[in-house]
Amino acid sequence: VRMTVFSFSIEPYGENGWIATLSKSDMVERALTVNAAADALRDRPGVTDAVAGVESIVLRFRPSEVTAEAAKTMLNDALQTAKAHSARSEAVIEIPVCYGGEYGPDFEMLCEKLGISGEELISFHSAKTYRVLTVGFAPGFAYLGPLPDELQTQRLATPRAHVPAGSVGVAGAMTGVYALASPGGWPLIGRTPKCLFDAGTDEPFLFSSGATVRFTPIDEPTYTALKAERS
């Protein structure tokens, strides 16, 4: 596994925290590096939490157990030595997606806005392999990237109060998958019938940082049949 070292800045974050922001560089390696650092820090003495995004990491500490400077050094060292996840040994996670219609309420709007056909949108979105950059915002929500330039767009001006579980959206340079129903502001292009959350397992959410994902287009009858298999 190649060691990746980035330039980054560390600033105070609240009363007992530090935030490190990585310089602009490869999106995937940056995201996987901060997530690897967070994984390494969570069990360290005095650390109350380590939360990674796609380009930053917040370290919170217990001052009765570790000084602010020691916590800052801990964060610095974790980033200096973090190994960005290389290709995972497990198989690529295949996510079947029914694009457009009731499953992708913003599909047609996005096609018009981006000046592409529906077939082109599906092709652009499903033709490449993505990495899970981080998981957050809502439980199990997966940020995947990088999204092809042709599909990059802004979030919705007014977020939805309810986005169904399995919805697939795009925003900025990323595509996202809602593991659970939640509010959300990403333009929705489709939905998967695949089970993304299973409360009866040790790791209930399908996605984890570094996983490799591909989207496979399916039609509505196939969506309905796959959904029925789960019930």
How would you describe the overall organization of this protein?
There is one protein chain. It is built from five helices and 13 strands. With 231 residues, it is of the alpha+beta class. Strands 5-12-9-10-7-6-13 form a seven-stranded mixed barrel, surrounded by four helices. The radius of gyration is 19 Å and the shape is elongated. The mean pLDDT is 89.
Based on the model shown, name its key terms.
7-stranded mixed β-barrel, single chain, 13 strands, alpha+beta, 4-stranded antiparallel β-sheet, 25% helix, 5 helices, 231 residues
Task: State the gist of this model.
With 231 residues, this protein is of the alpha+beta class. It has helices at residues 27-41, 68-81, 107-114, 118-126, 220-230; strands at residues 8-12, 17-22, 47-52, 56-61, 93-99, 130-135, 142-145, 160-163, 167-171, 174-177, 182-184, 188-191, 212-218. Helices cover 25% and strands 29% of the residues.
